[in-house]
Sequence to fold (192 residues):
Amino acid sequence: MLQQTYDWMMEKAAHRHALWWLAAISFIESSVFPIPPDIMLIPMVLAAPTRWFRLALVCTLSSVAGGFLGYAIGYYFMDTVGQVILAAFHLTDKFAAFKPLVDQYGVWVIIVKGATPIPYKLITIAAGAFHFDLPHFTFASVIARGMRFFLVAALLWQFGTPIRDFVEKRLKLVTTALVLLLVGGFAVLKFL
Fold:
């Protein structure tokens, strides 16, 4: 089934309404859809490299908007819908382990986890379930999702097809390096 969903997304990436499909996939991936929007973003940027910024922006804003749905599921429906979603994606154990991280690191853990290939739906649902401050959640989500999608799009725009294989195989490494650079930059600014 996962392969069929992947193939369907690749087909939509070439559709004449691909931008709308990208927005829809980015939105629903944040709470219930199993495949990340990168699968559509990558071929769309490769097909139209000069539109990389617009594509990354649509992907980011739609993902953050969808994050509010995930947050609402966690906030209002954790015992019903939230549990079903987490169980369907085998994220129940990760959900339990996420609470102490949110309590200790707050916005930072959402930025770090939201920028990596860890399912964003886990973060959005957990943030709602833990009643994490909504403005802080919004800020962290914009930073995390923006870093992820703009990094992928910018690399593809700059380097084209050769970087595609690297990004697809090492997305976690690339986004982790970016997060470390961001955190390191904030740490340096704090101590200057």
User: Anything to note?
Assistant: The chain has one domain: 2-191.
